[in-house]
Design brief:
heterodimer; A: 517 residues; alpha+beta; Multidrug efflux transporter AcrB transmembrane fold; Alpha-Beta Plaits; Gyrase A, domain 2; B: alpha+beta; two-stranded parallel ribbon; 11 helices; 59% helix; disordered N terminus
Chain lengths: 517, 350
């Protein structure tokens, strides 16, 4: 064994220990001690079950979103057919399919051409019937998938806007699976207001940018002020049009030169309103205001009739998408339902932390005492490794910003019990080799080498179940999976490598005349 | 030769223990002790505290049919319990609403039920949760569109009539889950457990051999069934946390199977001519102390958890305790004999 090598490894270990201690030090320091910038005041993020708060799970009815979308496409189709003077019977919608029949078979080619050019995302099929053949149109699977994704994005964005106004510290709004959105509101005990706020429709208004200030004007904040640009706008108070006038807004790719633009499609009534507004206010800026925040204030270039307007600007695709989302935010794109609602009071969280810590200490003490009793010196060594194990687990949890939940604490407690298993395997093997008459040194080598396969395999199997759990679980249970998996890694490090380092160090100093196991 | 005997007790101090102990290894021992610049092993203390003395020789596989049949009967019973009585699903898997309430003064479930009887809560059930008479779990169904917070208020109002005072009672938590989510989760949960079990089998089959994989899967299925049976009988709440425990049982119970399998392989490599049944028996005996110890240390922390970690984690801890104990049993009495029944002996040592 190279003595220098051991010294380097011990030094690396010392660095790790000091770093972990420093990182976790805010946990025990009084709150008024000033901290250097790189330290967080609360290094461990507590889950809702420990600090109290509300967890809401919303399910977005994405299929409904697809249908709503198709209904708007049907409106468009009607307009186009009228423009092109193609005569059809009623266009009916059933679920995700539109059905119609042409009044005169001669127009079939023109109809096909129209669908191909204007509605490339619709898949056409023709069913024979007694009268004229029935043409069925439905969105392509890819288009449907995109609509679903869009519906979720839009809902997520809308919910986020609402929650931001709610003023909760550190809210978390996340997509889960294909159609769920999880909202976590720490510290909120009565979710009623939050639910109302999320459920209510956003207020989208169109107001003119004021030309001169006066009693009829107001100052509104810009939602995403660009660096260098104004942080707020002076607008006329009068609302010219609301979100109900907007039927849809979509991002269009546009030309290479101009870049993407947003196509604004207005409802029938909205189209008339918009025509009047634009006619009177050419060259003025019409601000798009969502819930009292100005998202954009494009200039009116001309009178716009026909219910379609393009909003151009030097956006990239993301900005265009965000604007389209804002414009569509007049309503949630699909109905959302609360599928889960959990509220944890503050005292339950406090109790859980206290009980978790007590079981950690009692369980830890039992294991530590047992190991010393049973393995004496080697037991003491394993106990030292155990202490380091807990330290490293906490530090890794903190470093990754993982959330500590009650099952997460259970995961740490469980790790205490499982970590020493590696030491049991090693020590039993060492004893066996000693009984066989090996020297302490040879017995140590053989003990670590031969126990390794079983240690590795058992940690891998637990890791597999931990990963499956992580994939499956949500919230608190995920917290358990996280601590379990982190614990496996730190266990292999501390229980195997760190204890081995100790023996190597003793060996390098030729001090190892006997092993206490 | 050796002076150690099975004493029946747990730990024992040994006295008068000569160096070369197991018969076959005597020669190696002498050889090593006599050569090399290493300090003499004479300085080595060979008096260990032992749970299982090294001379232990139990015929584990001899009664394999009895154990396999006995365990199978228990498994069938567990399935019958699961199908007929069923698990006490928590709100995660059942849907509906759970409300945890803590009272300042001890009361009884029926008293609480009486206090709430005027509210016409659908399918109301009241359970004593912490068995202290102070913490209760109220379960009921709410209709779609009903507001949770208004129900919370009416319940608070009804309870406040009897439990007066500032701290008369406290609503600790409420959880409400739609029925659809619950049913979906239940199915996914069982799938996850089955998937994990198969993953373990594949891993063991890859690391060792086909028959070990089969043995591991059968043993795990046994552990999961027995644990589920215990959950049905104890009426502990089966929620997401309990499911997490069940998945952990799958990941941990296989440890002992690994320890034993590892040793069987080693024994057969050293003694290629040895009878498989003897090899398995010897391997189990030799590793018995470590299989018991590894489970034992985990049980120490789990007992602490069951006693001190509060009512939320108790089902979790109990599930793990039952699962880990059956896991150790099944590694010895199910997994190993199945290897024996299945194996083409010549391949094991390969």
């Amino acid at each position: 064994m190279n003595p220098g090598n051991v010294v380097y490894r011990l030094a690396a270990l010392a660095v790790l220990i000091v770093a972990s201690l420093v990182y976790l030090s805010p946990l025990v320091l009084p709150a008024d001690v000033p901290l250097p910038k790189f330290l967080q005041r609360e290094p461990l993020h507590l889950g809702l079950d420990l600090r109290g708060g509300t967890h809401l799970l919303f399910t977005v009815d994405v299929e409904k979103a697809v249908e709503n979308n198709l209904a708007r496409t049907a409106d468009e189709l009607r307009r186009e057919l009228k423009d092109q003077k193609i005569q059809t019977g009623d266009i009916t919608q059933e679920g995700k399919t539109l059905s119609l029949s042409l009044s005169s078979p001669d127009q079939r080619a023109a109809f096909d051409e129209l669908v191909k050019n204007r509605f490339p995302n619709l898949v056409m099929s023709v069913q024979a019937s007694d009268g004229p053949p029935v043409i069925q149109l439905s969105p392509s699977p890819r288009e449907q998938e995109q609509m679903r994704r869009f519906a979720i994005d839009q809902s997520l964005e809308t919910i986020r806007n609402r929650i931001d106004q709610f003023g909760v510290s550190e809210p978390s709004i996340q997509r889960q699976g294909d159609q769920d959105i999880v909202v976590q509101l720490p510290g909120v005990q009565d979710p009623q207001r939050a639910k109302e706020l999320i459920g209510k429709t956003a207020v989208l208004e169109f107001k003119l940018v004021a030309q001169k200030l006066g009693p009829g004007t107001e100052k509104l904040q810009a939602a995403n002020p660009l660096p260098g640009a104004a942080k707020d706008y002076d607008l006329e108070k009068k609302v010219l049009m609301t979100g109900s006038a907007v039927a849809d807004a979509r991002v269009r790719p546009g030309t290479q030169l101009e870049g993407p633009y947003v196509e604004l499609i207005l409802s029938d009534r909205g189209a008339r309103e918009f025509e009047a507004i634009t006619a009177e206010n050419v060259t003025r800026n019409l601000a798009i205001v969502l819930d009292g925040k100005v998202f954009s204030a494009p200039v009116i270039r001309e009178k716009i009739a026909g219910g379609r307007a393009s909003i151009t600007g030097s956006f990239d695709i993301k900005e265009a998408r965000d604007l389209a989302i804002v414009l569509r935010a007049g309503a949630l794109p699909a109905p959302i339902k609360i599928a889960e609602e959990r509220t944890v009071g503050p005292s339950l969280g406090r109790d859980s932390i206290r009980q978790g810590v007590v079981s950690l200490l009692v369980g830890g003490a039992l294991v530590v005492l047992f190991m010393v009793y049973y393995y004496r010196g080697a037991g003491l060594l394993a106990d030292g490794a155990l202490v380091l194990n807990v330290l490293f687990m906490m530090a890794i949890l903190a470093a990754f910003g993982a959330t500590l939940t009650l099952p997460g604490i259970a995961g740490i407690v469980l790790t205490l019990g499982m970590a020493v298993d590696a030491n049991v395997l090693i020590n039993e093997r060492i004893r066996e080799e000693l009984r066989a008459g090996k020297t302490p040194r040879a017995a140590l080598e053989a003990g670590y080498d031969r126990a390794w396969a079983a240690i590795r395999d058992s940690n891998i199997t637990t890791l597999i179940s931990g990963l499956i759990l992580f994939q499956f679980g949500s919230g608190p249970v995920k917290g358990f999976a996280v601590t379990l998996c982190i614990g496996l890694v730190t266990t292999v490090f501390t229980a195997v490598f760190v204890t081995r380092m100790y023996y190597d160090w003793k060996l390098s100093r030729r001090q190892l005349l006997s092993v206490s196991v | 030769m050796a002076v150690v005997r099975v004493s029946g007790g747990c730990y024992r101090e040994q006295t008068g223990y000569s160096m070369a102990e197991p018969q076959t290894k005597t020669s190696t021992a002498r050889k090593t002790a006599g050569k090399g610049p290493e300090p003499q092993a004479a300085a080595q203390n060979l008096h260990f505290r032992e749970l299982v003395p090294p001379t232990m020789n139990i015929d584990f596989v001899g009664k394999r049919y009895a154990f396999i049949i006995g365990s199978s009967i228990l498994n069938v019973l567990a399935i019958v319990l699961f199908v007929t009585i069923g698990l006490n699903y928590g709100v995660d898997f059942r849907g509906g609403t759970d409300m945890r309430v803590r009272f300042a003064d001890p009361t009884t479930a029926s008293a609480v039920r009486d206090e709430l009887s005027g509210l016409s809560l659908r399918d109301l059930a009241v359970q004593d949760f912490g068995s202290t008479g102070k913490e209760f779990l109220l379960r009921f169904e709410i209709d779609e569109g009903e507001q949770m917070s208004s129900i919370t208020q009416t319940i608070s109002g009804a309870l406040a009539k009897t439990h007066t005072g500032d701290k008369g009672f406290e609503i600790l938590s409420t959880e409400s889950v739609g029925p659809k989510v619950g049913a979906q989760l239940r199915q996914q949960g069982l799938m996850a457990v089955a998937f994990a079990t198969i993953c373990m089998g594949i891993y063991i089959a890859l690391r060792f051999q086909w028959s070990f994989g089969i043995g591991a899967v059968v043993a795990l299925a046994h552990d999961v069934l027995i644990t589920i049976g215990a959950l049905v009988l104890t009426r502990l709440a089966f929620d997401l946390t309990t499911l997490a425990a069940l998945l952990t049982v799958v990941g941990f119970s296989v440890h002992d199977t690994i320890i034993v399998s590892d040793r069987i392989r080693e024994t057969l490599r050293r003694n290629p001519k040895m009878d498989l049944a003897d090899a398995i028996n010897r391997s189990i005996n030799e590793t018995l102390s470590r299989t018991l110890l590894t489970t034992g240390t985990v049980l120490l922390v789990l007992v602490a958890m069951a006693l001190f970690a509060g009512s939320t984690l108790r089902p979790f801890a109990v599930t793990l305790i039952v699962g880990f104990i059956t896991g150790t049993y099944s590694s010895i009495y199910i997994a190993a004999p199945i290897v024996l029944l299945w194996t083409d002996r010549s391949k094991v040592a390969a």
